[in-house]
Amino acid sequence: MNIKLIPKVELHCHLEGCFRPATVMELGKTLGLPVPTERDAFREQWMITRPLQSLQAALQCFVNIQSVWCAEEAIERLTFEAVEDARDQGIRIIEFRYSPDFIKNGHAHLNFEKIHNAILRGIAHVDESEIAVGLIGIVQKTLSLKDAEYTTDFIIENRETFVALDFADQDTHALNAYRPMVDKARKNGLNLTTHAGEEKTVDAAQHVRDAIEELATERVGHGIHIIDDAGVMDLVIERNVALEVCPTSNWLTNAVPSTAQHPIRRLYDAGVPLTINSDDPGLFGIDLCHEYQILRDEHGFTDAEFDRCNDAAATHSFISLDRKRKAWPREIKELK
Ligand SMILES: [Zn+2]
To answer: How many angstroms separate the alpha carbon of residue 195 from the centre of ligand 1?
Structure first.
């Protein structure tokens, strides 16, 4: 089947990493920002298309893009185009995540409310019957605990328009430090996903175990290095924790040596619940269809296997069953 026509679910997509180069170049002119005006220079300086030295180096590349998220109209347009691009590649259910702190940083005239409302306006441009859109609020693990609490409270106050929290970026505190915030968010009906087990380190699988045992995370962002630890793989399967796998992203951040050597096939065959995602499609110059093509060409994924991943993703999506059912063509099982 033509990949575009496969109904898809995407659960791990950073809104700030979604953009059309032409739009960013145009916004550069209107907003008076130093965005390259030539396509090649833009690709070279603003996008990551070759593996970087480290995850930290990749995160640094977000700084350029962050500068464009500086005005409400720009935020609304970037969001609208991200939803439109998702819909146009056959995505029926999508959860975008963004970091209020990341966007606000250095933009004194913005605040969390203005940012969130501009994003909601961007989403509202696209018909809800065509694509169900959910928002995950990111709490950066690099924040002080006080700032992390502040951001968590903002997400909780806006629980009608957020579906979950995500603890992202590199660890600076033990995960159990976030437990009170997670408990409060859960009491208010929010779910949890956690970036863990992305970089290949000696304790990568342990980070996933901690996220499950200490925070009871319902999903894990990446988590691919559990492949090295049978005990953690069993735990993930037993608790039915879904991994949000992003093959090209893992290659570009050197989490795996190549997409062909990605452990996704072994994880799938072992029965790990997994979902297929693009992470930062604009930044990487890819889209979700590109990831499906890689899995078909390099890992032999069949259309039936894609359907199985997508049905699992529909189940694991934090968007309400009611809204998901309106957008998804098959029956959606409830998460036990
Ligand atoms: Zn991510």
So the answer is: 7
